[in-house]
Write a structure and sequence with these properties.
The structure is a homodimer of 486-residue chains.
Chain A lengths: L3 E5 L3 H12 L3 E5 L5 H15 L14 E3 L3 H5 L4 E4 L5 H14 L5 E3 L6 H5 L8 E6 L8 E5 L6 H13 L3 E4 L9 H17 L5 H16 L4 H9 L4 H8 L18 H15 L4 H21 L4 H17 L9 E7 L13 H18 L4 H5 L2 E12 L8 E11 L3 E10 L2 E14 L4 E2 L4 H14 L18
Parallel strand pairs in A: 1-2, 1-4, 2-3, 4-5, 5-6, 7-8
Antiparallel strand pairs in A: 6-7, 9-11, 10-13, 11-12, 12-13, 13-14
Helix pairs in contact in A: 1-2, 9-10, 12-13
């Protein structure tokens, strides 16, 4: 059954939460009195739709239903999860919580607050045990981090449930065990921010120079390892202790101005705003968002390939979905439709078409599904036998573009105890965009040579082969590259 | 003529400099009295060779010659550039500079110092005008940033020459206009470091939790935009000034402990070292280096695809090389080695082999690089023309496994105004793991039909075709699937 999230406060952060829930198949009700809220949410949702699916290698669930509620009561009714993202004013948050808990006192109620502690948020609440911090990072629909901060008054079981919900929408809940102003990450951001204000004010560096000093160097490091793991490497074989002893003394050196805070006056604001215009003013905010999101998708896909950091979170999220996506294929006396795919943003090359290698990927998805069907899946391989692809001929016959839904069907051309010759059609709206003719060999993986497949596998295979013998042989079979058509 | 760099001090940083110069075709002489230096340098160089070429889409120059010099004098003799990376002790640096300048008083002399100002480095020097800060970031062979800091005593023309040299080895020289302790980036690192020490000491978070708080959130942002551009987006259409006015008040809130410095005692060292062991101790430092480098390559390639940030630096560096690569093609009639890849965890199927579709991916990387080489890259496509792949025949000839390093080379079989018939070899240790025979068609993307390529593209293409006409035709060409060998 579809679950429901209530989003209270529909700015950039609330909109990011809404997009994440919707694209992960949750229904969402938003409450925000701002008449501009629907437009703002639409913009965030458009950005999310253009980027989040590119991180998934399994079909996404159908998008949830979005409702703009007229009252907090309507929004939170029957909600399985409530996220508050109103302005950073404690009194306002308390009023909103009273309204929420008058209608839904038991639902997990996360706050996007950057700075307040959960015990502050809970003050005077009807049910303090359900209120906690769930602090996300912009863009909420892409960045996995959510700092989950309970107070001693929180219900531990509810916190665990909330963390499961955050994982369900692809996030990485970081359980912050002791509450503290600004939690963890924002303390670092604040430290860097204060130092940066000094550097600009003192004319050491412009906003652009500061940004380059970050993104050309340690910023790249911090996207994949944090502070300590990076320094562990710097310490080398001598170890972390050696590193610490070497760098400890710097603590007393004048390497930061952070003992002090710059005066925050109009002059400083104008200086920074002017430098920022010079640096980035030639891009609109929408353009900057797209550039940012596209780069973040690139980083996260790089990490996904390596099953590291944020990429590990994505892989775990996919694995949970794959099971659902694979169930429900049945054999038939016709080419077997085995794969259903959607062309994701990350599959597109600079021509705007699906990249070449994704056609072969679609073919592999189809043949893998076929092998599972005849009993030569994961367990079979784990026991030491497998089909290897020896040869493939691909015909590119059409163009697959962003968002296209493709099917992969397979016809057995011939098969014996060791060889399996198949023809795969990748189709869009019933018309082929590519065909793949493949020769697979059954191998003993330990001996490293071809051998007959197991009798139960051959029984399934030969049954399908015999029924497919009645099918017309596709004209594209037996072709070599450059051969004239017809 | 090959140029020479002298590297004084051969630790991780000096080794990183040496690797960057060598892989960019410079000869390098290293001086380091440590008998362990050659082993350490070899290790850094092995890491660099395994990662830096993966960032290049044009053939790299031949690797330079590495010499371990017995004296500073031997090292700096005839050097076009000198980089000092000895320990952070000012008196030691002064002694080393005296030795260097007694033998090479006029060469640019950059220091890797994290903290000292150039005017401090210049004190008492024979020729202060040539001494400046060139502060790199580990791993030096991958991260583009070098903070270049002159003092008023520096020679501006020499500083410009040094910046050109840094660009020549693929770096991004950030000219810091006013000298200051710890330059720019390390001030931020120091601020975060001090805050992190407090968080660990106070038991708020472990080293692992802090690292997750960074790399799952703002760390990903900072690899592609810095602090100010990120916040500019957060400010939205209302602008940077609005953002500043909203967040200015936080400066007086207790969001950082940075007004204070934690006591750096054994207890704190043990706490951090112990937590770091628990977090990362199951990986050796070498493993962590490989994981880091592989992820950095992934990030930088993602940015390169988008021509943004560090990726823009890489593209500019490639562009400078492309001309040299093209002019070199008529010298030797050989298949062009265009792609360098490593088999990543995400590329492996449940057989433990590189998935089928990654062979085609490797082929695409090779043909894409070829198209860029002949002038049919991104700009050409943006202007409405492109080569589409019509047909591909893949022979699977070997097994690529996790961590294997592959190269992709391309031979032109035939080409006319519209058609391009190529043969691609994907090789591991010089032996093919797969070959791809491809037919590409040149198309007018708006009209949606084949058309002749631009004259300047054809000029490059035909020159390569004509030189490749002398090469033997690979026996695997013209095959169809299932055809007997021989």
């Amino acid at each position: 059954m579809t679950r429901k999230a209530a989003i209270i406060g529909g700015g950039v952060i609330g909109g990011g939460w809404a997009a994440r829930f919707l694209l992960n198949g949750w229904d969402v009700a938003i409450f925000d009195p701002d008449p501009e809220a629907p437009r703002k949410i639409d913009e965030v949702l458009a950005n999310a739709k253009a980027s989040l699916p590119a991180l998934s290698d399994v079909p996404m669930p159908p998008i949830g239903r979005l409702v703009f509620a007229k009252t907090v009561k309507d929004a939170v009714q029957d909600a399985d999860y409530i996220q508050e993202s109103v302005s950073e004013q404690l009194a306002l948050k308390h009023r909103v919580y009273a309204d929420i808990q008058a209608n839904a006192p038991d639902a997990p109620l996360g706050s996007s607050t950057s700075g307040f502690k959960p015990s502050q948020l809970q003050e005077g609440a009807v049910n303090p045990a359900t209120i906690f911090v769930a602090h996300p990072f912009n863009p909420v629909y892409l960045l996995p981090l959510a700092e989950v901060v309970p107070s001693p008054a929180s219900n531990p079981a509810l916190i665990e449930r909330a963390k499961d919900i955050l994982r369900d929408i692809g996030m990485f809940p970081l359980h912050v065990r002791k509450e503290i102003d600004a939690h963890i990450a924002d303390r670092f951001l604040e430290a860097v921010w204060r130092e940066a204000l000094w550097l600009v004010k003192d004319g050491i560096a412009t906003t652009e120079e500061i940004d380059e000093a970050i993104r050309m160097g340690f910023g790249l490091r911090w996207g994949q390892m944090g502070l300590f793991e990076t320094y562990r490497i710097a310490g080398g074989e001598a170890g972390m202790k050696h590193f610490l002893e070497q760098f400890g003394p710097c603590l007393t050196w004048p390497w930061t101005k952070l003992m002090d805070v710059p005066e925050f006056n109009d002059e400083l604001v104008d200086l920074i705003a002017g430098q920022s215009d010079a640096q980035s003013g030639h891009h609109s905010i929408r353009e900057l968002e797209r550039i940012r999101d596209s780069s973040l998708v690139g980083f996260m896909r790089a990490l996904k390939d390596r099953d590291w950091g944020a990429g590990r979170v994505l892989n775990a999220h996919d694995a949970g979905r794959r099971k659902a996506a694979l169930s429900g294929t049945d054999a038939a006396a016709a080419p077997l439709t085995l794969a259903h795919l959607q062309v994701l943003p990350g599959w597109i090359d600079y021509n705007g078409h699906m990249t070449e290698s994704r056609y072969l990927f679609a073919g592999s998805e189809t043949s893998d599904a076929f092998l599972r069907l005849i009993g030569a899946g994961m367990d079979y391989v784990a026991a030491g036998h497998s089909y290897y692809t020896a040869e493939t001929h691909i015909m590119h016959l059409g163009e697959a573009k962003l968002g296209d839904r493709l099917t992969g069907s397979l016809q057995v051309l011939s098969a014996d105890e060791k060889r399996l010759h198949v023809f795969i059609r990748i189709e869009k709206d019933g018309a082929p965009v590519a065909t793949l003719e493949q020769m697979l060999l059954h191998v003993d993986m330990n001996a490293g040579r071809a051998c007959p497949a197991a009798p139960e596998v051959l029984a399934h295979l030969f049954k399908i082969r015999d029924s497919h013998a009645a099918l017309p042989r596709p004209p594209a079979t037996g072709r070599h590259v450059g051969q004239r058509k017809g």
